[in-house]
Write a structure and sequence with these properties.
Layout lengths: L7 E5 L3 H13 L3 E5 L2 H5 L9 E5 L7 H11 L5 E5 L4 H9 L4 E4 L4 H35 L5 H13 L6 E5 L5 H10 L8 E4 L1 H4 L4 H6 L17 H4 L4 E5 L6 H13 L1 E2 L8 E2 L3 E7 L13 H4 L4 E4 L10 H16 L8 H9 L5 H13 L18 H19 L4 H8 L3 H10 L9
Parallel strand pairs: 1-2, 1-3, 3-4, 4-5, 6-11, 6-12, 7-8, 8-11
Antiparallel strand pairs: 9-10
Helix pairs in contact: 13-15, 14-16
Length: about 450
């Protein structure tokens, strides 16, 4: 049997004999105890990363236990605090518990009661820290999947993080290459189904001559040969997990009708079966649209009208120009790492091309250009699909200026003096430009 995790206790007690006795009792139970004579000393030591439990007296000079508890709530509202009180302080302790204190013990308390309270609070602390770790991991995953730092990218990350833990179906709508498939996988990985199957049904499968067999399978009793012809379809393989329907427009009328039935009933009828099988699946659909704001079209058709899903629109890179430089930098670093090469410096010519090109292929095209750039094969003389002059010149210049500032901030790690020397620009002008583009040097240090 796995040994129980050690207990960690921060003990705050101003009475030296009682502090020593309590420390000894906790240590005999295997607890790692750090004792403090007053709350002020403990406040300078406790952090949100502390893995243990706080045990504090209520009556103390300077900062009393109730004020100390309030201060700890500011440090970390999930930090469990057990208050030890005299009979006259019970009402205060009860109020503190209503505000989130883990427990209170009335003096004189037994070692058994103290250990019981500490163990219970330690279990809650471990769970709170694990949940926090999972949230932070989810945030990092979403950040790496939804590239960019513009308000649009931040909103998209927020929506995905909010939708993923639910069981609701999702429709992802937008042009090709905007990250819909990646987002579908991310939603699955951030959900409670992450340990279950994630099955993709793409346009190639839907247009296949045996699409019905591939999707819905064949019952063992169907046709000559019996079990030898049986096959589990892709839909049934997703049972318990997520079914991702990518580019549903490729399905013919008959297949579309069967998929509609699946969406509405969550049941699958394999070829030759006499009874439908109920499935536990979450459905994510990706729709290819020219206009990501158009969440109608096929979804207003009776086929998908009853899906009742959350709809998430993905914008083309042409509408997310503020994100393009950051995404390009990330792609360059990734491709250089994957190819075992050193990421080359991005010169003015490349930045002009990155800013002026319209990237009709969206992330796929930008990633391909970044890979070619790392390999020294990028063609920066090729004319963009649409000339950037279709945007106001002032906006083109502003985008380029922001990119130059961001690149310089990274190179000098946010040092204003180095930035001034690098750009050969007066300090006041530097600060004015940073304020204009909301660039904070501290983020680059």
């Amino acid at each position: 049997m796995t040994a129980a995790a050690p207990l960690h206790v921060a003990l705050i007690e101003d009475d030296p004999p009682l502090r020593d006795a309590t420390t000894q009792a906790l240590s005999l139970e295997g607890a790692e105890v750090v004792a403090f004579p007053d709350a002020r000393a403990a406040l300078g030591w406790l952090t949100p990363e502390y893995v243990g439990v706080v045990v504090s007296d209520v009556r103390m000079p300077g900062i009393d236990g109730i004020a100390f508890f309030a201060r700890l709530r500011e440090v970390d509202p999930d930090l469990p605090v057990i208050l030890t009180t005299g009979h006259g302080d019970i009402a205060m302790a009860v109020d503190a518990m209503k505000n989130g204190a883990a427990d209170f013990l009335t003096k004189p308390y037994s070692s058994t009661d103290l250990i019981r309270a500490v163990r219970a609070a330690s279990t809650r602390r471990a769970l709170a820290l694990e949940n926090r770790r999972l949230r932070e991991e989810a945030g990092r995953t979403a950040t790496s999947a939804v590239l960019g730092d513009s308000p649009a990218a931040q909103r998209l990350r927020s929506v995905i993080e909010g939708v993923a833990p639910s069981e609701i179906d999702v429709v992802l709508s937008g042009p090709a290459g905007t990250g819909k498939s990646h987002a579908a996988r991310l939603i699955h990985e951030l959900s409670l189904r992450r340990g279950r199957p994630f099955v993709t049904v793409d346009a190639g499968i839907l247009a296949h001559k045996d699409a019905e067999l591939l999707l819905f399978g064949r019952d063992p009793a169907a046709g000559a040969g019996g079990a030898g012809l049986s096959r589990t379809g892709l839909v049934e393989r997703a049972n318990g997990g997520t079914l991702f329907l990518d580019e549903i427009a490729a399905a013919d009328a008959l297949l579309t009708a069967r998929l509609q039935s699946l969406v509405e009933t969550r049941q699958v009828l394999p070829i030759g079966a006499d009874r439908a099988r109920r499935l536990n699946i979450r459905i994510i659909i990706a729709r290819l649209t020219d206009d990501p704001a158009d969440v109608g079209g096929g979804l207003r058709d009776p086929v998908w009208h009853r899906l009742g899903a959350v709809q998430i629109a993905f914008a083309p890179l042409a509408d997310r120009r503020a994100d393009v430089p950051e995404i390009f930098r990330l792609f360059v670093v990734r491709h250089a790492r994957d190819l075992g090469l050193t990421a080359p410096a991005i010169e003015e010519a490349q930045w002009r091309h990155v800013q002026s090109h319209d990237w009709p292929g969206n992330l796929h095209e930008l990633s391909g250009y970044a890979r070619a750039f790392v390999l020294g094969l990028a063609d920066i003389e090729a004319p963009p699909t649409r000339i950037a002059g279709q945007r106001p010149l002032q906006q083109v210049v502003a985008d380029f200026e922001r990119t130059v500032l961001e690149d310089a901030l990274r190179q000098c790690r946010g040092d204003i003096t180095q930035l001034q020397d690098m750009l050969q620009t007066p300090r006041k002008t530097i600060y004015d430009k940073l304020a204009k583009y909301d660039l904070k040097p501290a983020r680059y240090r």
